[in-house]
Amino acid sequence: MKAIDQDELRGLSAAILSDIMDSLGLGRRAMASFVRPLDDTLVLAGRARTGLYMPAYSVREGENPYEVEIALVDDLQPGDVVVLACNGPTERIAPWGELLTTAATARGAAGCVTDGLVRDVRQIREMGFAVFQGGIGPLDTKGRARMVERDVRVECGGVQIDPGDLVFGDVDGVVVVPRHAESQVMELAQAKVRGENHTRDALRAGESLASVFARLGIL
Predict the structure, then answer these.
(1) pLDDT per residue over 101-140, tens digit each?
(2) Is beta strand 111-114 parallel, antiparallel or unpaired with respect to 154-156?
(3) Class assignment of domain 6-178?
(4) If we measure between CA atoms, which residue out of 49, 52, 50, 48 comes closest to residue 147?
(5) Please, what is the average pLDDT of the chain?
(6) What is the pTM of this model?
(7) Cβ-count burial of 201 within 10 angstroms (0-12 exposed, 13-18 middle, 19+ buried)?
(8) Residue 107 gets which letter from DSSP?
(9) pLDDT confidence of 1, banded at 50, 70, 90?
């Protein structure tokens, strides 16, 4: 799987990537607005490693209800983003917390995105690990839900995500760039960054918004 070029991402934002995907007809690539960062100052970028959760109502004797999520976290590679699909928004489960964050950090993962809840928020913030979540709550998944599959296509926050897709998050939200369009999206996004820089310079110099838009076509 192609590694992400961090230099290529410099200066990009969720808003710019969303605009570019809109222009290419790639709809529903921004997660619903309830998926928010635990820390507004952190930027998340990496390859999706997906986990699919389903409701559960009991734990059988001798069963390890965390088996699949343990396997996913133990298999994380540097730059991976854990994407946990819980059919959110939900008040039912918090599939991510301090200990999974600790394990993911040790493996060089870039962050976690879930449309479920997260818990152990203070400890996660202290670790500086980028987590985007659908809410905060103390409820463990045990006896409430279980990860039934990993590294499969999922829908999280209203966005269809395949393993290996580029996940990008900042204070504006989370967007997902599909692998088949990644090169084109990144090229056009960098061009838009350059165009916005020219627009900003012109506006700061006192040129009217109307004339700048007529000349550069960027707003």
Answers:
(1) 999 999 999 999 999 999 999 999 999 999 999 999 999 9
(2) unpaired
(3) alpha beta
(4) 52
(5) 94
(6) 0.93
(7) exposed
(8) T
(9) low
Report pLDDT digits (tens) over 187-196: 999 999 888 8
Q: How far apart, in whole angstroms, are the C-alpha atoms of residue 84 and residue 110?
A: 14
CA distance 118 to 91: 10
What whole-number distance in Å separates Cα of residue 156 and Cα of residue 175? 11
Distance CA 22, CA 10 (A): 21
Q: Which two tokens stand for residue 59?
A: 């734990």
SS3 80: strand
Neighbours of 112 (CB within 10 A): 29
Least confident of 47-56, 93-102, 205-214: 205-214
Measure the CA–CA gap between 12 and 189, rounded to whole angstroms.
Answer: 7
Cβ count within 10 A of residue 48: 23
E strand or H helix at 49, and its extent? strand 44-55
C-alpha closest to that of 55 among 164, 144, 183, 182: 144
Q: Residue 11 and residue 209: Cα distance in Å, rounded?
A: 23
**How far apart are alpha carbons 175 and 11 in whole angstroms?**
15
